[in-house]
């Protein structure tokens, strides 16, 4: 009987456990459902929709090359899949597990809605180890990254990677499919996605090409990873997020490298697994805080004052007067991605310098990042804010000007803040007033902001 493969963030043919199992059991009907309502405030953001369009287009071509196709449908995923299973007499629906709370709920609803002779078969495929499987000696999940990573390193290597299916049989008749272009995932007027298209190549093949390139570069990751002016990180994050490539494939491709760069890189990939481990324990992690601060005292709320709203907009548009922050926020807007070091600096700036609730930043990144990931984004925002279950503290405040100098962001600033293109290296991190031209003055002084943040922190603890 036909086997439905429910595609979500697993847009690939190789190392695809759900597709692999389905292809061995019968004719395959791959289905992607655009279920826009289910995720609420975490429905796909603007940049994610652009990536999704191109990735589906690319995967559709790959299936086409295998004389297969993707069936595109829009609406409530469990209902649509259950109806398709019924209509086409599917023996099983195969899917790779996803751990966002709305997807876990959808998996439960689907299992309940299926016709009696159809089963839901869930596979593990998008992480180094199945989330929840790395535990303490007493079987509890880890809350803190370092012991989690140590334990995971002891559990590695991960499973073997799976090849592309030898044969993907088609069903006798195909269900009708929507036309991808009619989903309007791409912006039209204005078309703000040009920068994203220039910066990226989408899809499974592009992901592997980037990994091939990265295999020659990873040895320098220790030094390179903090330098935003250079292309010295893998830039695999959107490919990993959308499941165009798996961390298991990355691991097996790089494992013989033995360099310290590879060891450091592996720990970053483990952060990704850690974030899933956190959202499995705390499904509302991208919304709730887990410390005993009085958040009403701590944050300046943009909804309560015109000025604070304007400050939030200056941050979003890259007009804070701090060159490295503005370069980062403009890189984000133009390319859908931001260098990790700068993601940290910009996030810390919003939360500590402007004292604006991290949730506003989380939502902005969510909308603008092509790799916007419920686990990674929530965990990193909480880490920067010191509001999560991990070990970081609010009182750790990053100094954007010295970070910019230390990590040599001059080239990066010139690229993304053209107003400062002619300013010399020695003053570009904090240009004097007469060298700023049209570029704005600092929205708040660093020392003043730091003192205000620490005071607010103390008040929120006492309150
Ligand atoms: P590399 O340095 O090459 O790292 C390799 C891979 O490891 C990345 O592709 C990513 O999958 C994973 N990784 C690296 N750092 C982290 C990390 N700190 N946490 C989790 N995984 C990590 N990453 C996302 O994928 N999606 C997000 O929505 C996201 N939001 C973030 C928000 C904030 C405030 C911060 C500080 C970081 C966020 N990150 C997020 C983590 C990190 O910035 C990106 O994964 C990284 O910059 C992607 O670039 P890269 O692929 O070149 O990374």
Automatic annotation (TrEMBL):
Superkingdom of this protein's organism:
Bacteria
| A GO MF term | DNA binding
What the entry lists under InterPro entries is as follows:
Crypto/Photolyase_FAD-like_sf, Crypto/Photolyase_N_sf, Cryptochr/Photolyase_FAD-bd, Cryptochrome/DNA_photolyase_1, DNA_photolyase_1_CS_C, DNA_photolyase_N, Rossmann-like_a/b/a_fold
**Keywords per UniProt:** Chromophore, FAD, Flavoprotein, Lyase
Q: Which GO terms describe its biological process?
A: nucleobase-containing compound metabolic process; response to light stimulus; response to stress
What does this protein's record comment on cofactor binding?
Binds 1 FAD per subunit.
**Quick check: keyword Lyase in the entry?**
yes
The Swiss-Prot or TrEMBL record lists the needed cofactor(s) as: FAD; (6R)-5,10-methylene-5,6,7,8-tetrahydrofolate
Provide the binding site for FAD. 221, 233-237, 265, 371-373
Feature type site, description Electron transfer via tryptophanyl radical: 299, 358, 381
According to the entry, every stretch annotated as the Photolyase/cryptochrome alpha/beta domain falls at 1-128
The Swiss-Prot or TrEMBL record describes its family as follows: Belongs to the DNA photolyase family.
Q: What is this protein called?
A: Deoxyribodipyrimidine photo-lyase
| Lineage of source species | Bacteria, Pseudomonadati, Pseudomonadota, Alphaproteobacteria, Sphingomonadales
């Amino acid at each position: 009987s036909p086997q439905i493969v429910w595609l979500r963030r697993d847009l690939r043919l190789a190392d695809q456990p759900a597709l692999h199992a389905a292809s061995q059991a019968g004719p395959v009907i791959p289905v992607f459902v655009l279920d826009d309502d289910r995720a609420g405030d975490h429905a796909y953001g603007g940049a994610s929709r652009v990536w999704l369009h191109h990735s589906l287009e690319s995967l559709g071509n790959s299936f086409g090359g295998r004389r297969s196709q993707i069936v595109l449908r829009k609406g409530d995923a469990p209902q649509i899949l259950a109806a398709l299973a019924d209509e086409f007499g599917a023996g099983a629906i195969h899917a790779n597990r996803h751990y966002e709370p709305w997807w876990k709920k959808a998996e439960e609803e689907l299992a309940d809605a299926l016709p009696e002779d159809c089963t839901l078969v869930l596979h593990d495929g998008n992480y180094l180890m199945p989330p929840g499987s790395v535990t303490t000696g007493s079987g509890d999940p880890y809350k803190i990254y370092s012991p989690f990573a140590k334990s995971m390193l002891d559990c590695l290597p991960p499973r073997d990677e799976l090849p592309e299916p030898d044969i993907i049989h088609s069903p006798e008749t195909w269900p009708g499919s929507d036309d991808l272009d009619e989903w309007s995932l791409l912006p039209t007027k204005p078309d703000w996605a040009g920068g994203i298209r220039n910066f990226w190549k989408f899809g499974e093949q592009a992901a592997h090409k980037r990994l091939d390139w990265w295999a020659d570069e990873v040895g320098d990751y220790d030094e390179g990873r903090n330098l935003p002016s250079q292309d010295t990180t893998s830039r695999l994050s959107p490919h990993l997020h959308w499941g165009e490539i798996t961390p298991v494939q990355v691991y097996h491709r790089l494992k013989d490298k033995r360099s310290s760069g590879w060891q450091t890189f592996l720990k970053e990939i483990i952060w990704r697994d850690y974030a899933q481990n956190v959202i499995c324990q705390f499904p509302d992690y991208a919304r709730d805080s887990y410390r005993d601060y009085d958040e009403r005292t701590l944050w300046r709320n943009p909804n309560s004052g015109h000025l604070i709203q304007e400050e939030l907009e200056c941050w979003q548009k890259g007009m804070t007067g701090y060159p490295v922050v503005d370069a980062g926020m403009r890189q984000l807007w133009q390319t859908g991605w931001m260098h990790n070091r700068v993601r940290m600096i910009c996030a810390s700036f919003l939360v500590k310098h402007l004292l604006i609730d991290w949730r506003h930043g989380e939502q902005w990144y969510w909308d603008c990042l092509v790799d916007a990931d419920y686990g990674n984004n929530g965990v990193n925002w909480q880490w920067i804010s010191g509001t999560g279950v991990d070990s970081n503290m609010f009182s750790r405040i990053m100094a954007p000007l010295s970070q910019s100098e230390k990590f040599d962001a001059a080239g990066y600033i010139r690229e993304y803040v053209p107003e400062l293109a002619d300013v010399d290296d020695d003053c570009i991190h904090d240009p004097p007033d007469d060298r700023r031209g049209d570029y704005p003055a600092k929205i708040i002084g660093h020392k003043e902001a730091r003192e205000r943040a620490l005071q607010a922190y103390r008040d929120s603890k006492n309150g």
